[in-house]
Amino acid sequence: MARKTPLGKRLSDGLRAAYPEARCALDHLDPFQLVVATVLSAQCTDSRVNLTTPALFRRFPDPAAMAGADLAELEALIRSTGFFHNKARNLKAMAMALLERHGGRVPGDLAALAALPGVGQKTANVVLGNAFGIPALPVDTHIFRVARRLGLSEGTTPEKVEADLCRLFPRELWIDLHHQLIFHGRRVCDARKPDCAACPLRPDCPTGLGRIPDPHSGRVLDLPEGTPVPAPAAPGAGPMRIVSLVPSVTELLAQWGLASRLAGRTTFCVEPRWIRNTVPAMGGTKNPDVPRILSQRPDLVILERDENTLAAAQALAAAGLNLLVLEIRSLKDCLKAFRILGDAVGTPELGKARAASLKAMLGRPRKGPRALTLIWKDPWMSAGPDTYVGDLVRQAGFTPVGPDRYPVLSEAELEALAPQVLLLPTEPYRFTRRHADNLGRRFPATRVRLVDGRACTWYLSRTEAALQQLVELFQEEP
């Protein structure tokens, strides 16, 4: 059994705060789909796999269908994931083995799963953790790199690193930790250029502090002189009773280690999930419960001009409360807001570091394919070029189209815009694959893409993740 060491607790707490949304990046509805997606993910990006599997599962929805698949047809469906000859043979053999050995059901046993053709122990552990909830901590390239940089293991193989991690962290943390470490490796601890200045784990990272050479590259990381070490604010620094009326700001404050200072939130401030049980809700985003907010005697209330109403701001100001009103309509606004918010809550280093992390991702926007982002259905509504979402799309390389702000579009107006790419975020309207397929049939000349809506609309806390997602989508365009 793993011991709860101070280092292990600090790292797991830091990862949970930084990546509360961490989850399996492979889209799946059942254990069989996850096995297939994981096999396809070898030497391939998760986003590419997610673009491939919908058509694959429509044609071969279960082991029986895949076991009887024509090999050439199967290869054609998965060609874009690479190594499609071997993958197709393995998938067909795996489906046949499920029928012959397990009655067509994916077993929830490590040995039985790992014995399936093309699966192996790593894939088996991914399926056990994500499909069956059985604790496992499989080590991929990201986890292997991050664990060694953090000094958690000197193992030279994924198996040895996995054993070291399992000894360090309690079993109940393994599933979440697996995803959090992958997110950290993708977003911050990059193989070629780790962003140590913005790393929430740097105070405990011997590589990031320059104490040991980078186990991945063999060199001591060259950080700019005077790069601050991010750390949670000390008790007494900044306001101690904060009410956040903005869901993404609430999440950001938790990422900065300030959740204990939150005295109130709105009912829509639901991330990280554990905050629902620890911070009281005080009405909605548009209609906050002002008397209840006053009862908490906050020393800072945070709002955003579009997210919250003028009436709510006026009522809170009239009560003599200290307000911080942000305005986010572009990624440049985010750069400014990181610094303003960091100063306001007593964590200027964290604000500057987060701004620097985002700034490093920005460049001169390219005039790529014309893209329209829909945010609602019945009636159709879009996010215009002058909105935060529009600027995300622009910075990723697309050319946002449509009227400014959040217009309602008729069927004729939607068709007349003739976008080359139609983006369907899963929030605020819950667009699904079915909506994407229907629109794809209606507009055959338009490429319809489903994107993570919460990432695209939760500014500040998820801005970098959203930009990365859209950049990857842009790179996949023909």
How would you describe what is shown here?
The strands form 2 sheets. Strands 5, 6, 7, 8, 9 and 10 form a 6-stranded mixed beta sheet that branches. The longest helix is centred in the N-terminal third of the chain and has 19 residues, at 84-102. The chain has helices spanning 6-18, 31-40, 46-59, 63-67, 71-78, 84-102, 110-114, 120-131, 141-149, 158-168, 174-187, 247-255, 290-295, 310-318, 331-344, 348-359, 388-396, 411-417, 433-442, 453-457, 463-475, and strands at 242-244, 262-265, 300-304, 323-326, 370-376, 380-383, 399-400, 408-409, 421-425, 447-451. 45% of the residues lie in helices and 9% in strands. With 478 residues, the chain is an alpha/beta fold. The protein is globular, with a radius of gyration of 24 Å. The chain folds into 3 domains: 1-227, Hypothetical protein, domain 2 (Endonuclease III, domain 1, Orthogonal Bundle); 242-357, Rossmann fold; 370-475, 3-Layer(aba) Sandwich (Rossmann fold), CATH 3.40.50.1980. The chain is built from 21 helices and 10 strands.
Keywords:
478 residues; alpha/beta; Endonuclease III, domain 1; Rossmann fold; 3 domains; 4-stranded parallel beta sheet; 21 helices; 10 strands; 45% helix; globular
Task: Note the topology.
Elements: H1 6-18, H2 31-40, H3 46-59, H4 63-67, H5 71-78, H6 84-102, H7 110-114, H8 120-131, H9 141-149, H10 158-168, H11 174-187, E1 242-244, H12 247-255, E2 262-265, H13 290-295, E3 300-304, H14 310-318, E4 323-326, H15 331-344, H16 348-359, E5 370-376, E6 380-383, H17 388-396, E7 399-400, E8 408-409, H18 411-417, E9 421-425, H19 433-442, E10 447-451, H20 453-457, H21 463-475
Parallel strand pairs: 1-2, 1-3, 3-4, 5-7, 5-9, 9-10
Antiparallel strand pairs: 5-6, 6-8
Helix pairs in contact: 1-11, 1-12, 2-8, 5-6, 9-10, 9-11, 15-16, 17-21
